[in-house]
Amino acid sequence: xxxxxxxxxxxxxxxxxxxxxxxxxxxxxxxxxxxxxxxxxxxxxxxxxxxxxxxxxxxxxxxxxxxxxxxxxxxxxxxxxxxxxxxxxxxxxxxxxxxxxxxxxxxxxxxxxxxxxxxxxxxxxxxxxxxxxxxxxxxxxxxxxxxxxxxxxxxxxxxxxxxxxxxxxxxxxxxxx
Length: 177
Fold this sequence. Notes:
Layout: H1 5-32, H2 50-70, H3 87-106, H4 110-114, E1 116-119, E2 123-126, H5 129-149, H6 164-176
Antiparallel strand pairs: 1-2
Helix pairs in contact: 1-3, 1-5, 2-3, 2-5
């Protein structure tokens, strides 16, 4: 099924942008929950460390948004800069890029959104579809990162509804009042 330019604008404005904007603070909460002294935690030697998984989430999400904007994927590796050492640094980088990219995406024409974009020879889809695919990718890896938190001694933030840790904190606050 092909999309018209008008349909692509509706898809972007009624679904993709609201979803991206709703998930952004959730992703930031999960990243912020990584204890700064546990950034190198990994549950197994074959997986990314917590800080590297957080970096993967934020760079990939912005890479997908960049592809929507430019009409092509730039798959050049983006190593974590030495200046990005903490979860707060990751979130700061993420927020800056996200805000700029969302602003740029909202200004795209319907014709730009329906341009067919190749992803590694695997998919050839209208550009607008990659906004949701990128978000799905972020949510998938955010789930992985949230599973790192408790074993590293961190509290799990609320993601879709109140988490156990958020409930315990809320109930403790009510008892003190």
